[in-house]
Amino acid sequence: MLTLIVVGVVLVVILGLLVRFALADADMTLLCKGRPKRSEVEGKVAWVTGASRGIGKELARQFAELGAKVIISARNLAELENVKAEILGKYPTAGVEILPLDLASDEESLREAVKKSESFFSGAGVHYMVHNGGHDPPPKPVLEMTGEDVLTMIKTNVLGTINLTRLIAPFMLERGGGHFIVISSTAGKVPAPGQSVYSSSKFALVGYFHTLRSELIQKGIDVTVVCPGPIASKSVSYGKNSGEKPMPTDRCVHLTIAAATHKLKEVWISGQPVLLVMYLCQYMPTLGFWFMDKIGINRVESTNSDGNTSLMTMLFGKKKEKTGKSAPLLK
Ligand SMILES: NC(=O)c1ccc[n+]([C@@H]2O[C@H](COP(=O)([O-])OP(=O)(O)OC[C@H]3O[C@@H](n4cnc5c(N)ncnc54)[C@H](OP(=O)(O)O)[C@@H]3O)[C@@H](O)[C@H]2O)c1
Asked: What sequence ranges are listed for the domain Ketoreductase (predicted)?
């Protein structure tokens, strides 16, 4: 009898965990943490790149809501001014400074930007460096990427971000601490068919920042690597017919700030089935990579045509056309 009760309890717990996982929109460690900690943010300076729209704009707003002073960067000055006006409209006492920046520019320009960022708010210095700005063009099959495509992506997503880090970290060390929040992607952890160079740029950030933390954490530098799946912010949407809703931008940002203020080192922010694929590739790579190899060509084909990236289409390809021929898999 006792054995039956124990087995029953174990089964109920397992069932509960499975349901929780099926409904999850982030990894289990992050979901176990609470809300963002205001005490970790209030009064500190957060510099957000790519803040003219999308995730970056919402990051700036939520940091301001939590009492941080924010520096907002991107290339488009007019959009940054709108973001500043919107934030001040909501939080009139917030501190907001605009710092136009092209991540793909040379080292001297980046050095100047860092100097300026350190001078804002009476020289308070940047505590949270939020590397969010990035180039994410529409998908293209791997062999159709031109040299120019590769260069633009790597310059913006990797070189700009790494150089900014090299230039600002010494100021943080001098003050005894700082925190890099790095918006990578699920494409920085698992293959992303149709986004080969974007994926490699996001993998590069994961490697660089985990290494940087291992060298500098004992000197007060924290790193939180954030890997979001599809987020509603994306201006050029693909996978639009998948039936899988992208996560609202404010939820992604809420979880990002929660992760950073709870000092998590890496978090995955996505609903299913992407989250399951992340777990498979991390903990059962043979199965995870087999799955990605099975769906890769179908995903490229679908994103190139009707954007139908539903799991069934990914697994089994597009239905036969009325002619009886299969739809072409690649353009
Ligand atoms: N949305 C998603 O589904 C998703 C998923 C995973 C990861 N992410 C990552 O999250 C970040 C933000 O994504 P998002 O959806 O908010 O993208 P978005 O709406 O396209 O915004 C991108 C931001 O980056 C800025 N930017 C682009 N090129 C730049 C450059 N050379 N120098 C400086 N700033 C530049 C843009 O401003 P300007 O054009 O004015 O410069 C804009 O503010 C990106 O790193 C993206 O890879 C997004």
From this structure: 44-234
Pocket test for ligand 1, best of 52, 77, 303 (most atoms within 8 A of CB): 52
Give the start-end residues of each E strand in 142-265. Answer: 178-183, 221-228
Domain residue limits, the chain? 26-273
Mutual orientation of helices 107-123 and 161-175 as an angle, nearest 10°?
40
For tokens 């063009």, what's the residue? 137
Question: What pLDDT digit, counting tens, does each position of 103-143 carry?
Answer: 999 999 999 999 999 999 999 999 999 999 999 999 999 99
pTM above 0.90, yes or no: yes
Residue with tokens 């087999």, as numbered in its chain? 290
Digit-coded pLDDT (tens) for 46-62: 999 999 999 999 999 99
Q: What is the largest CA-CA distance in the chain?
A: 75
In degrees rounded to 5, what are phi and psi of residue 223?
A: -135, 130
Q: Is 238 assigned a catalytic role?
A: no
Q: Does pLDDT of 315 surpass 80? A: no
Of 267, 331, 268, nearest to 305 by C-alpha is 331
User: What CATH topology corresponds to 26-273?
Assistant: Rossmann fold (3.40.50)
Is the preceding peptide bond at 138 cis, omega within 30 degrees of 0?
no
Query: Mapping DSSP to helix (H, G, I), strand (E, B) and coil, where does residue 225 land?
Result: strand
Residue 210 to residue 171: CA distance in whole angstroms: 20
Distance 74 CA to ligand 1 centre (A): 9
198, 238, 279, 283: the catalytic one is 198
Determine the Cα–Cα distance for residues 211 and 223; give it in Å rounded to an integer: 10
Question: Is residue 240 pLDDT above 80, yes or no?
Answer: no
Model confidence at 45, pLDDT cuts 50, 70, 90, reads: very high
Report pLDDT digits (tens) over 162-176: 999 999 999 999 999
Residue 51: burial class (beta carbons within 10 Å; 0-12, 13-18, 19+): buried
- Specify the ligand 1 atom closest to the Cα of 49: 34
What is the C-alpha to C-alpha distance for residues 72 and 253, in angstroms, rounded to an integer? Answer: 15
